[in-house]
Design a protein that fits this description.
Radius of gyration: 20 Å
Number of helices: 9
Structural class: alpha+beta
Strand order of the largest sheet: 10-6-8-7-17-15-14
Largest sheet: 7 strands, antiparallel
Number of strands: 17
Strand content: 25-35%
Order of helices and strands: EEHEEEEHHHEEHEHEEEEEEEHHHE
Helix content: 25-40%
Length: 385
């Protein structure tokens, strides 16, 4: 661990100066308590650093969660062994791609019974009209998105088959976050508050704007959780059809990595915003995916208080998407994905493993933050363009 200053701690051995500078700006805010923790996968982000844990007293920074509110992971351990699967996994990939809408702006055309039940629960709990952010928000439930979101079939070190996915609150969460980031920025302008970065605009506890953001943030976090559950149920059904038998879930793990909760740290109750970080309190299960084609991990938190009971959420980018597309080739992607069933397309060049930090380095840096329970290797990869 590197103490950058009294209000910034860093667990990343691979980190760029721009990332440290961005986090240092956030650490200057007067309501940080006691310090910001940078995770081993930290990299430059919009507004706040991805892979940062930001504890605040009496204020919330909407950009400290970001626009994909509630983004996170879900995993199911099945009773099946990799040897139970036939060698041609193409039909399984195609079935999943038919069952779950992929890519940005691609949603369901109708609600399944399970999605309708989840939508009704979300609508009843909202206390506001989500339709003012996205008229079709109901049809977004059970959809993946694009970028680094994925669905995978994996096996662990014992050969057990896992179903694994990564997604968040989709378009409706993005619109909610973007609205409140703008509101915070307008307030800063009205009050003539100077910030080290405009995207660090904040909302003060006790105000209507703070209460509105917190309420809608929590709703979007619930939407993200329900979205992953809906997709996972569809993936389980696809897998059951592929193996020709029921899928007994031996374990289901869910974790957000873009969210805010109230927690107690160093003697004070704070608003803890994890942007690209998971809860790693002692004994808490978590999921840390590697990049496309790399290993992923099922972990248990060690409860490292200096790290604010947090850990990395993945590998962390080392190349921007535009630079990755210019640097890497389709052949390199094929080599990286050798032995894995995936859709072979140029659209995934920016997700090639070489565009990310080596996950083994990230996990080595995280040794004091989490304990590794299982190491997962991919059999099938599904992504949106």
């Amino acid at each position: 661990m590197q103490r950058v200053n009294d209000r910034l701690m860093n667990w990343a051995s691979l980190i760029e100066e721009d990332t440290l500078r961005q986090a240092e700006k956030a650490s200057r805010l007067p309501f940080i308590h006691p310090h910001i923790a940078l995770m081993p996968d930290a990299h430059l982000g919009k507004g706040a650093t991805v892979g940062s844990v930001i504890p605040t007293l009496g204020a919330l920074i909407p950009a400290a969660v970001g626009v994909d509110i509630g983004c996170g992971m879900a995993a199911v351990r099945t009773r099946y062994h990799r040897d139970d699967l036939r060698s041609d996994l193409g039909p399984l990939r195609l079935a999943i791609e038919r069952a779950v809408p992929l890519s940005a702006g691609v949603y369901n055309t109708r609600l399944t019974d399970s999605a309708r039940e989840r939508v009704d629960q979300l609508a009843g709990a909202a206390g506001f009209d989500p339709g003012r952010y996205a008229k079709n928000w109901q049809l977004q439930l059970g959809t993946l998105g694009s970028g680094n979101h994925f669905i995978e079939v994996c096996h662990d070190e014992n050969g057990a088959v896992w179903l694994f996915l990564h997604s968040g609150s989709r378009g409706v969460g993005n619109k909610i976050a973007s609205h409140h980031i703008r509101v915070a920025q307008e307030i800063m302008t009205q009050r003539r508050i100077t910030l080290p970065d405009r995207d660090l605009a904040y909302l003060t506890e006790g105000t209507e704007e703070f209460a509105a953001y917190l309420h809608e943030l929590r709703w979007a976090q619930s939407f993200a959780l329900a979205n992953r559950d809906e997709m996972m149920d569809r993936v389980v059904a696809c897998f059951a059809a592929f193996v020709g038998g029921p899928v007994e879930e031996l374990e289901r793990v869910q974790c957000h990595h873009n969210y805010t909760e109230q927690e107690t740290h160093f003697g004070k109750q704070v608003w803890l915003s994890r942007k690209g970080a998971i809860n790693a309190a002692a004994g808490v299960p978590g999921l840390i995916p590697g990049s496309m084609g790399d290993a992923s991990y099922v972990v248990t938190g060690r409860g490292n208080e200096q790290a604010l009971n947090s850990s990395p959420h993945g590998a962390g980018r080392s190349y921007s998407r535009s630079k990755a597309r210019k640097t890497f080739t389709r052949q390199q992607l094929r080599e990286a994905m050798k032995g894995i069933e995936f859709r072979d397309t140029d659209a995934f060049l920016d997700e090639i493993p070489q565009a990310y930090k080596p996950i083994d380095v990230v996990m080595r840096d995280a040794a004091d933050l989490v304990e590794i329970r299982h190491t997962l290797r991919q059999l099938v990869n599904v992504k949106g363009d």
